[in-house]
Design goal:
The protein has eight helices and eleven strands. The protein has 279 residues and is of the alpha/beta class. The strands form two sheets. The chain has a nine-stranded mixed sheet. The longest helix is centred in the last third of the chain and has 14 residues, at 212-225. The chain starts with a strand and ends with a strand. It binds iron/sulfur cluster (2 copies). One iron/sulfur cluster binds next to loops.
Length: 279
């Protein structure tokens, strides 16, 4: 079994509790206006447009496919910044065994692994097997997901998943659709079901400057999850939108001020979240 892996970070302190190896998969089912890594959205279609722009000759076309030489690549970003298809040629189709070998190299310095993206749940079968093997090594398993697929209702997946860090990008259906291109029905269903199962570890909302829908999202998320927070340690991470790496209209959006963030934090501080963090 193989999955498209964009990159792996051997050691991270920001993708769940403790030190973790993080596996970033390529491909996403959302198309968020404020996406900071739009090159992770689609799979490369081998159009070849980025090949001549590589300054170190790390890209070439072989039998109609773009091949990326990671030994030559200096990660200048020219290929994915200029890709018209929100893709990158620097993706490795990897087996579970290859990823596990990399993870083993990081032991005993890590507490667990986290899968992210793109959207990791698109690689559901791969993750089930990866998590099974990680657990047999004594490692914890976390998903970082947009919640667009019914992950919380997938018993086999949940059986090997310790927790989920879930994005709630918008509680208003039209705002969410406009922002991401997808409905938020499943996201909200996942949030409640994960909390009910004790598998929700963190909620993340990107806050837009002076946007009433951001405020509404934070308030509604607090209200929806409040009944489950007494028995669960759920962190709410309020993330300031930053106009870095974004495309289109989002390039002109501004960052919310600290005052706005503190007000949102106050709005949910009595709901029972384990921590409310502004980042
Ligand atoms: S990121 Fe790597 S492959 Fe892409 S253009 Fe730069 S050096 Fe070449
Ligand atoms: S990364 Fe983009 S520009 Fe490069 S070959 Fe693939 S689709 Fe074309």
């Amino acid at each position: 079994m193989k999955a498209p892996v964009n990159h792996i970070i051997d050691s991270s302190f920001i993708d769940g509790p403790g030190n973790r190896t993080v596996i970033f998969f390529q491909g996403c089912n959302f198309n968020c206006k404020y996406c900071h890594n739009p090159e992770t959205i689609n799979l490369c279609i081998n159009c070849g447009q980025c090949v001549p722009g590589c300054p170190v000759g790390a890209l070439e076309i072989v039998d109609g496919k773009v091949e990326w030489d990671d030994m030559k690549c200096v990660d200048c970003g020219a290929c994915y910044r200029n890709c018209p298809y929100s893709a990158t040629p620097s993706v490795k189709e990897s087996t579970v065994e290859e990823v596990i070998e990399r993870v083993k190299g990081n032991m005993p310095f890590i507490r667990g692994i986290t899968v992210s993206g793109g959207e990791c749940s698109l690689q559901r079968d791969f993750i089930v097997e990866l998590f099974r093997q990680a657990k047999s090594l004594g490692l914890g398993t976390l998903m970082d997901s947009n919640g667009g697929l019914p992950i919380a209702f997938d018993e086999e997946l949940m059986a090997v998943t310790d927790g989920v860090m879930l994005d709630i990008k918008g509680s208003d259906p039209f705002f969410h659709l406009e922002l991401t291109g997808r409905s938020n029905d499943m996201v909200l269903n996942n949030a409640v079901e994960l909390a009910r199962q004790g598998k929700l570890t963190e909620i993340r909302t990107v806050v837009l400057s002076n946007n009433p829908f951001s405020r509404q999202t934070v308030v509604n998320t607090g209200n929806i999850l409040e009944p489950y927070l007494k028995d669960n340690k759920v962190t709410y991470r309020l993330i300031k939108f930053r106009p870095i790496g974004v495309r289109g209209e989002a390039e002109h959006w501004t960052m919310p001020g600290q005052e706005q963030m503190e007000e949102l934090k106050k709005l949910v501080s009595d709901k029972g979240f384990f921590k409310v963090i502004i980042t």
